[in-house]
Specification:
Helix content: over 70%
Shape: elongated
Bound molecules: protoporphyrin IX containing FE
Number of helices: 9
Strand content: under 5%
Radius of gyration: 22 Å
């Protein structure tokens, strides 16, 4: 697979798996709430009782798929940088520790799926989130710190942590008669939903801005010479080795 195709892996899975899942999960969320409020007033509800369990069943898939696409994007960014800058030659331990953080993120999330007690759910939720943050702070990841409030990275990492948190508190939502955890879940995941909408916007914007491999040396010149602000001339770049 060439670099340009690898870049498309993350948006492709977002479009074909993550966003459809978000649609179904949110639909079930609204049904769950509507049914609960109808039943609480003593009225009969036309919504089946399975709406809640379907929301959770697909919600579990949603958490996994969001963390999955974030890890794919990080892998593209971080390993792309490692190859380009030949980091392996200068600091092999750094490369090994980055690989171990990827393993740690996947292992912690799979343990979180199986954890029963509150303590272990807390521990694995924190470990998964920390592993994502550590990988996300590596060289090669485009964080857009200057515009963090519209950054695909910051929205993405926050949404992933909110999904991990939802997975960790499923038991609390069901057991809490005062609905405190349920309300916390609703508030946090309404924010997550807005972040996902933001991801769709900032994600397609990223795609628009990232040049194809053969265009890169020319487009870099446009940025260096600030061609958006002043007239400039793009020099011919050394011919790239194109895959046969
Ligand atoms: C964008 C994503 C999500 C949104 C907007 C969302 C929103 C909601 C809403 C509105 C409810 C109904 C609350 C009520 O009864 O008033 C709910 C219930 C619930 N959600 Fe989510 N949620 C999302 C993702 C998740 C995920 C990823 C999980 C866990 C893996 C999860 C676990 C639960 C649980 C356990 C309930 C209680 C279900 C029941 O009463 O049977 N949610 N959610
Ligand atoms: C659930 C939704 C999504 C999440 C949580 C998410 C998360 C992320 C994260 C954390 C990164 C790494 C930071 C960066 O390089 O900017 C990233 C990269 C990227 N995302 Fe997304 N993203 C989502 C949806 C999308 C969509 C819908 C598109 C485009 C249609 C997209 C396109 C990209 C591109 C082009 C990159 C940079 C290249 C790469 O690292 O693969 N993303 N995404």
């Amino acid at each position: 697979m060439d670099r340009d195709t690898i870049l498309l892996l993350h948006p492709f899975i977002a479009a074909i798996v993550v966003f459809p899942l978000i649609g179904i999960v949110v639909n079930h969320a609204l049904q769950t709430r509507q049914r609960r409020l109808q039943v609480a007033t003593g009225a009969k509800s036309a919504i089946p009782p399975s709406a809640g369990s379907e929301h959770v069943r697909l919600g579990r898939w949603l958490t996994g798929s969001v963390v999955g696409i974030v890890l794919i994007a990080f892998a593209v960014d971080v390993f792309g940088y490692i190859v380009d800058k030949q980091v392996w030659a200068t600091s092999p331990f750094k490369v090994i520790s980055i690989v171990l953080f990827f393993v740690a993120a996947i292992a912690s999330l799979s343990f979180l799926y199986q954890a029963k007690t509150r303590l272990w759910r807390g521990v694995f939720a924190i470990l998964t989130s920390v592993a994502l943050i550590v990988i996300g702070s590596q060289d090669g990841v485009y964080r857009n710190d200057a515009q963090w409030y519209i950054s695909h990275y910051y929205y993405g990492i926050t949404a992933s942590i909110l999904m991990i948190f939802s997975l960790a508190i499923v038991k609390e939502i069901y057991q809490d008669r005062t609905h405190r955890w349920r309300n916390i879940h609703i508030v946090l995941n309404s924010i997550a939903l807005l972040l996902f909408v933001g991801q769709a916007f900032t994600g397609v914007k990223s795609l628009l801005e990232i040049p194809l491999v053969w265009q890169k040396p020319y487009v870099e010149q446009l940025y260096k010479q600030q061609c958006d602000k002043m007239p400039c001339t793009v020099q011919s770049a050394p011919a790239l080795k194109m895959p046969k």
